[in-house]
Amino acid sequence: MKKQPTNIRVDFEQFRNENKITYWWASEFMLMLGYKTMKSFEKVIQRAIAACMTLDIPFDTNFIVTMRKQDGKEVRDYKLTRFACYLTAMNGDPKKPEVAQAQFYFSQQTRRFELYLQGAEDIERVLVRKEIKEGNKALASTAKRAGVSNYSNFTNAGYLGMYNSSLWFLRNRRKLDPKEDIYDYMGRTELAANLFRITQTEERLKRRGVLGQEYSELTHRSVGRQVRHLVKQNTGRYPEQLRASRKLMEVKRELVTGAKKLNKMDKKDQ
Description:
Order of helices and strands: HEEHHEEHHHHHHHH
Helix content: 55-70%
Largest sheet: 4 strands, antiparallel
Radius of gyration: 22 Å
Strand order of the largest sheet: 1-2-4-3
Shape: elongated
Structural class: alpha+beta
């Protein structure tokens, strides 16, 4: 067992392993990020794997599950590629100084390839966007059971509550083409607020046994209005005033390119 890491900038490259591929043990990388147990670190890894899957990047070649002996016991560990380490660091707790240091370290690496990713925020946008897609499917199913027949009007009611305007008006305000996905230009905060609106509307429809198109729309609008006030309270701005971000498809392309280039760094050294 190597000595416990103390500084990500110095230790990360020293802790690399070579055996057909270049990899880092998750159990050692977690110490660099300030985590004490694999149980707590496992949540970070699973979040990183989810991001990898959302990007359609093979996760099983970047996060290789391995059983290894530690202190005489067989324990579950992971062989992490450089890109897997990047995703894991970006999904770590930024309040930990070690995680913040690692995020800065990897952001400097990606800039070498002229990839200007926003790190944790960009990856979080990718993950939340996927959750919104899944959440909208669940909400549509619940709304249908509640008697909603015009789902377009039901959806728009949520926007009216949250943005104080229709989806059509919001698109025009942001100068988006009608065919473009409005979520693709939302930042992390706005995406998270919409996810909250979607999940809480579903819960309220279920819990209160709401029935009918009209009452379902009123419910969605009411939840949207509550989320609107929460956003204003926490950010000082209403949802429609939040800063737009670059198109999510561009972020995904850069992350996929980053995966290839980060891992290619190690292939050159083998």
